[in-house]
Amino acid sequence: MFYFLANKLHHLYPKIKECSWNYWESGHGKGAPDGVGGVTKRTADRLVAEGKDISSYEILLNSLQNNIKNITYFSIDDADINKISDLIKKDSIKPFLGTMQVHQVKVEDYTAGLLRFFRLTLFDVQSTSYFCGILDYSDEDNGYTQIEPEVSSDSDDDLRLSNLVCHKKKMQRIHYNDVYSDDEAGPSSKIYQQDLVPSNIIKDTYVLVEYKTKLTGYRYAAVVQNVLDDDEVLVMFLKVCKFQNMQAFRANDNDMSFVGYDQILAILPPPNIFVKVNKTYYKFHNDVDVFEKV
User: Fold this and answer.
1) Which of 17, 92, 190, 230 has CA atoms 20 to 30 A from the CA of 113?
2) 293 with 218: CB under 8 angstroms?
3) Which of helix, strand or coil describes residue 58?
């Protein structure tokens, strides 16, 4: 959809100057389209309950149009789908890392070929506080470039970790590194012995995640919550309990974010899990080489 917005929409509608695609809920096209779907389903259910024989798609379409006056339905057949598919260069369709945090996608100038992403729907206000990044489609032959916003060091103290995660532009195969502190000796101080490839990063895997601000980089322990098909991993970050001992961590259910595979430095061995005073804690067997923002 991002590729279509940036490169094809203005060819179908030459008079269009700018557009804004807004999400009622981040990661979902909620809002008016969602309401249309709900009305459509309820109307179809009511017609069937009243004895209407809906035996084909054409009958359904006519029945809906006759019973819902303020919604216009369009029939899309295989030829229409194939026509759009031919317009799209599949090798140029790339994900925007951080899509699940986006509430608005804007094209402000179709001659520039830029998509701008925001965590909050903005129309009249020119603010960079909610800016997520840019997809640059200005050169179709060379694909796209994802441009991340710079995070001001002045605001770091006011943000959760999930708000500071920055994605790198290129996704690549991730490699193994030692993740335990250097003062630990022996094989047990090394990372979990399995290939660090995307296929091994699944739900409930413990990982070491890197994110960078403008001035420095940080490393956090995290638990994988979900893996999406567009090369994004939803993780819940863990906070170390004591800086003198990098083995014990506590969960923060509200501190979650999507990260790219290239931000995962290592897979950690499963810790011991215990609950104390309604809080979940994780105890690793060795110190984990985290570097948290104080």
Assistant:
1) 230
2) yes
3) helix
288 close to 246: Cβ distance less than 8 angstroms: yes
**H/E element holding 146?**
strand 145-147
| Burial zone of 115 (CB within 10 Å; 0-12 exposed, 13-18 middle, 19+ buried) | buried
The Cα 72–Cα 155 span in angstroms is 47
Return phi, psi of residue 121, to 5°.
-70, 120
CB 184 within 8 A of CB 286: yes
Is the CB of residue 251 less than 8 Å from the CB of residue 279? yes
For residue 161, the Cα-to-chain-centroid distance in whole angstroms is: 15
Tokens standing for residue 270: 């499963």
- Estimate the crossing angle of helix 57-67 against helix 32-49, to 10 degrees: 110
> How does pLDDT run across 19-74, given as a tens digit for each residue?
888 876 554 544 455 577 788 888 999 999 999 999 998 999 999 999 988 888 98
Cα 258 to Cα 102, 122, 209, 233, distances in angstroms? 11, 22, 11, 5
pTM for the full model? 0.40
- Alpha-carbon gap, residue 173 to 262, rounded angstroms: 7
Smallest CA-to-CA distance from 12 within 77, 114, 80 is with 80
